[in-house]
Amino acid sequence: YGERTELLVDRENEVRNFQLLRAHSCAPKLYCTFQNGLCYEYMQGVALGPEHIREPRLFSLSADVPKVEVLERELAWLKEHLSQLESPVVFCHNDLLCKNIIYDSTKGHVRFIDYEYAGYNYQAFDIGNHFNEFAGVNEVDYCLYPAR
Protein backbone atom coordinates (compact mmCIF):
# COMPACT_ATOMS: atom_id res chain seq x y z
CA TYR A 1 0.00 0.00 0.00
CA GLY A 2 2.39 2.76 1.08
CA GLU A 3 1.97 6.37 2.09
CA ARG A 4 -0.63 8.37 0.11
CA THR A 5 -1.11 5.66 -2.53
CA GLU A 6 -4.83 6.39 -2.33
CA LEU A 7 -4.05 9.42 -4.50
CA LEU A 8 -3.10 7.06 -7.33
CA VAL A 9 -5.10 3.91 -6.65
CA ASP A 10 -8.83 3.55 -6.06
CA ARG A 11 -8.78 1.01 -3.21
CA GLU A 12 -12.54 0.42 -3.35
CA ASN A 13 -12.20 -0.44 -7.02
CA GLU A 14 -9.34 -2.79 -6.15
CA VAL A 15 -11.59 -4.71 -3.74
CA ARG A 16 -14.42 -4.83 -6.32
CA ASN A 17 -11.97 -6.17 -8.91
CA PHE A 18 -10.71 -8.76 -6.44
CA GLN A 19 -14.26 -9.91 -5.67
CA LEU A 20 -15.20 -10.04 -9.36
CA LEU A 21 -12.12 -12.09 -10.20
CA ARG A 22 -12.72 -14.40 -7.23
CA ALA A 23 -16.31 -15.00 -8.37
CA HIS A 24 -14.85 -16.39 -11.60
CA SER A 25 -12.12 -18.44 -9.82
CA CYS A 26 -9.39 -16.11 -11.08
CA ALA A 27 -8.26 -14.84 -7.68
CA PRO A 28 -7.66 -16.30 -4.23
CA LYS A 29 -10.21 -15.95 -1.43
CA LEU A 30 -10.38 -12.45 0.03
CA TYR A 31 -10.66 -12.81 3.81
CA CYS A 32 -10.87 -9.17 4.88
CA THR A 33 -9.86 -5.62 4.09
CA PHE A 34 -8.26 -2.94 6.23
CA GLN A 35 -7.65 0.77 5.68
CA ASN A 36 -4.08 -0.08 4.77
CA GLY A 37 -4.31 -3.44 3.03
CA LEU A 38 -5.98 -6.71 2.17
CA CYS A 39 -5.78 -10.20 3.61
CA TYR A 40 -6.27 -13.00 1.12
CA GLU A 41 -5.69 -16.71 0.76
CA TYR A 42 -2.10 -17.95 0.55
CA MET A 43 -1.11 -18.96 -2.96
CA GLN A 44 1.42 -21.77 -3.29
CA GLY A 45 4.30 -20.84 -5.59
CA VAL A 46 6.97 -18.22 -6.17
CA ALA A 47 6.71 -14.70 -7.49
CA LEU A 48 8.50 -14.61 -10.81
CA GLY A 49 11.38 -12.38 -11.81
CA PRO A 50 12.58 -11.35 -15.27
CA GLU A 51 14.90 -14.36 -15.39
CA HIS A 52 11.94 -16.71 -14.87
CA ILE A 53 9.65 -15.38 -17.56
CA ARG A 54 12.36 -16.00 -20.14
CA GLU A 55 12.49 -19.73 -19.31
CA PRO A 56 10.93 -21.65 -22.22
CA ARG A 57 9.52 -24.31 -19.89
CA LEU A 58 7.39 -21.65 -18.16
CA PHE A 59 6.41 -19.48 -21.10
CA SER A 60 7.13 -21.06 -24.44
CA LEU A 61 6.51 -19.14 -27.62
CA SER A 62 6.06 -20.58 -31.07
CA ALA A 63 7.04 -17.73 -33.40
CA ASP A 64 10.41 -16.29 -34.31
CA VAL A 65 10.99 -12.58 -33.74
CA PRO A 66 11.76 -10.95 -37.09
CA LYS A 67 14.56 -8.49 -37.81
CA VAL A 68 14.11 -4.80 -36.94
CA GLU A 69 13.58 -3.82 -40.59
CA VAL A 70 10.72 -6.30 -40.91
CA LEU A 71 9.15 -5.00 -37.69
CA GLU A 72 9.44 -1.40 -38.90
CA ARG A 73 7.64 -2.26 -42.16
CA GLU A 74 4.98 -4.13 -40.22
CA LEU A 75 4.53 -1.21 -37.82
CA ALA A 76 3.99 1.17 -40.75
CA TRP A 77 1.44 -1.23 -42.24
CA LEU A 78 -0.33 -1.62 -38.88
CA LYS A 79 -0.55 2.13 -38.35
CA GLU A 80 -2.09 2.55 -41.77
CA HIS A 81 -4.63 -0.27 -41.50
CA LEU A 82 -5.48 -0.51 -37.80
CA SER A 83 -6.37 3.14 -37.50
CA GLN A 84 -9.51 2.18 -39.45
CA LEU A 85 -10.52 -0.56 -36.99
CA GLU A 86 -12.24 -0.38 -33.65
CA SER A 87 -10.01 -1.98 -31.04
CA PRO A 88 -11.97 -3.91 -28.38
CA VAL A 89 -11.72 -2.84 -24.78
CA VAL A 90 -11.71 -5.70 -22.25
CA PHE A 91 -11.06 -6.26 -18.54
CA CYS A 92 -7.27 -6.24 -17.98
CA HIS A 93 -4.92 -6.73 -15.05
CA ASN A 94 -2.95 -3.62 -16.14
CA ASP A 95 0.09 -4.41 -13.97
CA LEU A 96 1.62 -7.71 -15.08
CA LEU A 97 4.97 -7.15 -13.45
CA CYS A 98 6.90 -10.37 -12.93
CA LYS A 99 6.28 -10.27 -9.18
CA ASN A 100 2.52 -10.19 -9.82
CA ILE A 101 2.74 -13.62 -11.48
CA ILE A 102 2.89 -16.57 -9.08
CA TYR A 103 4.20 -19.85 -10.48
CA ASP A 104 3.15 -23.08 -8.76
CA SER A 105 5.55 -25.80 -9.89
CA THR A 106 3.51 -28.54 -8.19
CA LYS A 107 0.50 -27.79 -10.40
CA GLY A 108 2.42 -26.41 -13.36
CA HIS A 109 0.40 -23.21 -13.68
CA VAL A 110 0.57 -19.49 -13.01
CA ARG A 111 -1.85 -17.18 -11.21
CA PHE A 112 -1.97 -13.42 -10.95
CA ILE A 113 -2.05 -11.23 -7.84
CA ASP A 114 -2.43 -7.51 -7.05
CA TYR A 115 -5.46 -6.09 -8.80
CA GLU A 116 -5.17 -2.45 -7.78
CA TYR A 117 -4.78 -1.30 -11.40
CA ALA A 118 -7.20 -3.81 -12.92
CA GLY A 119 -9.88 -2.37 -15.12
CA TYR A 120 -10.84 -1.87 -18.73
CA ASN A 121 -8.14 -1.36 -21.33
CA TYR A 122 -7.30 -2.25 -24.89
CA GLN A 123 -7.24 -5.98 -25.55
CA ALA A 124 -3.50 -6.31 -26.13
CA PHE A 125 -2.33 -4.16 -23.21
CA ASP A 126 -1.60 -7.03 -20.80
CA ILE A 127 0.21 -8.98 -23.51
CA GLY A 128 2.40 -5.99 -24.35
CA ASN A 129 2.99 -5.27 -20.66
CA HIS A 130 4.04 -8.88 -20.09
CA PHE A 131 6.52 -8.92 -22.98
CA ASN A 132 7.96 -5.61 -21.83
CA GLU A 133 9.09 -7.47 -18.70
CA PHE A 134 11.35 -9.72 -20.79
CA ALA A 135 13.80 -6.83 -21.15
CA GLY A 136 14.11 -6.44 -17.39
CA VAL A 137 13.17 -3.52 -15.18
CA ASN A 138 16.15 -1.85 -13.53
CA GLU A 139 18.70 -2.82 -16.15
CA VAL A 140 16.80 -2.93 -19.43
CA ASP A 141 18.26 -5.13 -22.18
CA TYR A 142 16.03 -5.54 -25.23
CA CYS A 143 18.25 -8.39 -26.46
CA LEU A 144 16.49 -10.50 -23.82
CA TYR A 145 13.21 -10.58 -25.77
CA PRO A 146 12.35 -14.13 -26.84
CA ALA A 147 13.64 -15.29 -30.21
CA ARG A 148 10.77 -17.77 -30.59
Any overview of this molecule?
This protein is of the alpha+beta class. The chain has two domains: 42 residues, no CATH class; 101 residues, Aminoglycoside 3'-phosphotransferase, Chain: A, domain 2 (Alpha-Beta Complex). Helices cover 27% and strands 18% of the residues. The strands form three sheets. The protein has a three-stranded antiparallel β-sheet with strand order 3-5-6, with no helix packed on it. It has a two-stranded antiparallel sheet with strand order 1-2. Strands 4-7 form a two-stranded antiparallel ribbon.
Produce a short descriptive summary:
With 148 residues, the chain is of the alpha+beta class. The protein is built from four helices and seven strands.
Number of helices: 4
Beta percentage is: 15-25%
Instruction: List SSEs in N-to-C order.
Output: HEEEHHEEEEH
CATH class of the largest domain: Alpha Beta
Query: Radius of gyration in whole Å, from Cα?
Result: 18 Å
Q: Output the structural class.
A: alpha+beta
Helix content: 25-40%
> CATH fold name of the largest domain, please?
Aminoglycoside 3'-phosphotransferase, Chain: A, domain 2
Bulk shape: globular
Strand order of the largest sheet: 3-5-6
For the record, the CATH architecture of the largest domain stands as Alpha-Beta Complex
Spell out the CATH superfamily of the largest domain: Aminoglycoside phosphotransferase (APH), C-terminal lobe
Total DSSP E strands: 7
- The separation of the N and C termini measures 37 Å
Outline the low-pLDDT stretches. Answer: 60-64
Total discrete domains: 2
Mean pLDDT: 80
Largest sheet: 3 strands, antiparallel
InterPro entries: Kinase-like_dom_sf
EC number: 2.7.1.82
Family: Belongs to the choline/ethanolamine kinase family.
GO cellular component, one term: cytoplasm
